[in-house]
Write a structure and sequence with these properties.
Structural class: mainly alpha
Shape: globular
Strand order of the largest sheet: 1-2
Number of helices: 5
Oligomer: single chain
Order of helices and strands: HEHHEHH
Length: about 100
């Protein structure tokens, strides 16, 4: 399995209504230190992918897209549709972090 497939597998396992950080996804995929690569991989998902990319946020729980951008709004709406409270582009990692 290549790096992208390992990342896809971890992100696909994030439960509905939960989030994970880029760094934690990398760690769980066996790629510690590859947080930026996780972001790059999520940004470049194949068209029509069903991988729940919107459940990946930065380590502070913030949406990484520029505030108010189309991508920011899309991710915020997707998170809210799962019952995740998003306040000023940030989610509570204490409440919504996916723990094993």
């Amino acid at each position: 399995m290549n790096k992208q497939e390992m990342i896809y597998q971890v992100v696909s396992a994030i439960p509905h209504g939960m989030v994970c950080s880029y760094g934690e996804v990398a760690k769980r995929a066996g790629l510690p230190g590859y947080a930026r690569y996780v972001g790059h991989t999520m940004k470049n998902l194949p068209k029509g992918s069903r991988i729940p990319w919107h459940r990946v946020v930065n380590s502070q729980g913030k949406i990484s897209f520029p505030f108010g951008s189309d991508s920011f709004i899309k991710q915020q709406e997707a998170l809210r549709s799962e019952g995740i409270l998003v306040n000023k582009g940030k989610v509570s990692m204490a409440k919504y972090l996916w723990r094993l």
